[in-house]
Amino acid sequence: MRVFLCTDMLKKSWLRAERIGMERLPRMSRRVFTGGSLLTAATLGLPALYAQTQPETRKVTISVDSKNTFYCLPLTISEQLGYFKSEGLEVGISDFESAALALQAVARGSADICSAGFEHTLHLQSMQQMYQSFVLQGRAPQVAFGVSPQNLPGYQSITDLKGKKIGVPALGSSSAMMASMVLSQGGLKAGDASFVGVGKAADGALAALRSGQVDAMSNTDPLMTMLEQKGEVRIISDTRTLKGTMEVFGGPMPAACLFAPLDFVRKNPNTCQALANAMVRGLKWLQTAGPGDIIKTVPESYLLGDRGLYIASFNKVRESISLDGILADEAPRTALKALASFDASIKTGSIDLGKTYTNVFAQRAKERFKA
Description:
- It comes from Polaromonas naphthalenivorans (strain CJ2).
- By secondary structure, this protein is of the alpha/beta class.
- The chain has 2 domains: 3-7 and 142-249, Periplasmic binding protein-like II (D-Maltodextrin-Binding Protein, domain 2, 3-Layer(aba) Sandwich); 9-141 and 253-369, Periplasmic binding protein-like II (D-Maltodextrin-Binding Protein, domain 2, 3-Layer(aba) Sandwich).
- It has 17 helices and 11 strands.
- The chain has helices at 8-19, 30-34, 36-44, 73-80, 83-86, 99-107, 119-126, 174-185, 202-210, 223-229, 242-249, 262-267, 269-288, 291-297, 307-317, 330-342, 360-369, and strands at 3-5, 59-65, 90-96, 113-117, 131-136, 143-147, 165-168, 194-197, 216-220, 234-238, 256-261.
- Helix 8 (174-185) links the parallel strand 7 (165-168) and strand 8 (194-197).
- Helix 1 (8-19) packs parallel to helix 6 and helix 10 crosses helix 15 (307-317).
- It is globular, with a radius of gyration of 20 Å.
- The model is unreliable at 1-52 (pLDDT under 50).
């Protein structure tokens, strides 16, 4: 298992992973970025674009970063309950082990939409690739950061992680970003700790902790709840709650969302509206669904053979799920500030946040379904 230096190496690996395949992505017309009328039509939804109610593209492929996690639960619910079909869409979902691989699928043309963390739209724009989020799934990252009582029995503060190894699902993941923020806030510098990719599978993460390959873990549920229940980790920072997210990031931090190349959003507004409709309908269903309803709806494999664990995990992340698919205006600013605090490649002055997201589609869906 390879070990990577914190922050500096993480940043390089993150950017390198996202650049793979990006060179094949056609450059968009300069008019997309400078033509006020085209950009306004894409982001503000002029009536002319919505005169046609049928999706321009009925068959849509969504690449997903770990679909079986709660991070992407709204997508699974909308799929399982047939909400995409109700909107006249045939949606295929391709599941990947990391956001970098999911992004590559869009870049290479094998997927139209990506379901992953909002922060990737910022990284892509820093590389002159314009992607736009159009419906939010999570209003908190759902990541928990814990230390191993076995490997760090005397842990007292973040500085105790100096020289230690931290397990994350993958380099460049939201879990790695959250861990980097916590380390930075605790006074650790680049290279003071190391990241190790352990994936999101329970067996691999547990083995890494017990064998001493990692001393701490930053990951999502249901894995982190399982590790808590087994006494394998002691949680020291938690963004599964809105309160914990505010403590780490200083504001609302957008998590998983559906985003696509800005050119796709501009050319397919009715398709994006249909997707947003299905997602917001799923979010509304989740507002009143009980744990038993969730268990009956998601695939059996998601439960990891332990329904009690799955329910406990759902209860921990429930408030982090978006209510209506809309990004709070301050959320993208929080994400940009967070990334720029430990990633020198992100220049706040060069990022146009207005091009990274639009609430037009989610707002229309919210009004339609009274979410």
